[in-house]
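I hope you will forgive my troubling you with a question about protein structure. The full record is reproduced below for your convenience:

——
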Amino acid sequence: MSTYQDPSNDRDALLAALQEQTDLLSAHPEEADIISKVRDDIEEQLAALGQEESQDLQAGLSPTLETFTSPQLQTDGFSCPPSPGGDADDSDSNTDMDDSDSDEDELNDHLRERFCSHECDHESCRLANEHCNIILMASATGVPQEHPQTIEAREDEPLLGGPGAVTQSDSDPIYRNLIKGTAAVAQCGILLLAALVWAGIFSHPLIFFSAHPLLNSSAILLQVQAALILQPTATPQQKLLGTRIHYSLQAISLAAFVTAFTIIEINKGDHPRLTSPHGVFGLITYICIIIQALLGVVQYFFPVTILGSVDAGKRLYKYHRHFGYSVLVLELATVAAATQTTYNVKVLHIPLWGVLVAAVLIIGGVGARIKKHKLGF
């Protein structure tokens, strides 16, 4: 079986996805911006796959190249196995080479002279000629002479785990992205966080302020779902649907955050503000949430109108992802700081340790599925 069967299949799948994207653009021209992003992503994967195939080719030929360049071979020459008649091939006479020839071009010329013109019916000789031709072809096309140590760190590999663990297959419905791979860990974390907050609130009589933590925790829950649903998408159709669900959930989340902020402002009345770490973190978090939402709207819906070009929107997309993950961490820090407020310490009794455990699960589950090339690494 060919060593390159799997990369070949991957290439066919990517080319098919590229064609599907072209068809999708014809059917949905209004989605040109997101489809262009998908097209660039597929082309990057094709380029990375081509580089990997070249590296794998050279790695597979390394033992043969090592044999051809061994000191024993350079000294003694190449000897064919005995033929049925007992005579060796007369090409044994081409055996001399200076041991000091280390230059790559001289080595290739030496291989060509000694082996590519070598003819023999013996199986081992025939295979040697085939390997020689492949090596020379690889050299002529610029294949690296050494196999890099980082070949396993492909651009589409998540920070933790293999690509297959977090990539949506063609047969998977999109809702499975919510539990695929380490998403289950993140779900445990966000459900634990929501349960702690909601149990603390509903175990006491509801007041006007009660809506503030309920809305904030609900908004964070929606944001986690929005991230998890989009992360594993692969094909243009999946990414388009995932993006629509993503920004819909984020819009609801944003409305919840704004309402929660309005409620706390009304509830404060004439009382002083920013008197606790939670208050300071909270204000910074709300500002970052608004900025993040604006970045998303601009780069996706109005890249040409506001930024001047679709390419400018694509460049902004990377920072939108970076900032989004950072905002999630900031939101969890704000919730942790809320456990140290006077109201929580004396009334709600939401434990800090529980919030921290939930935060670790959320960050670990979401962070493990981040694909490095989407962050620009």
User: Anything to note?
Assistant: The chain is about 65% helix and 0% strand.
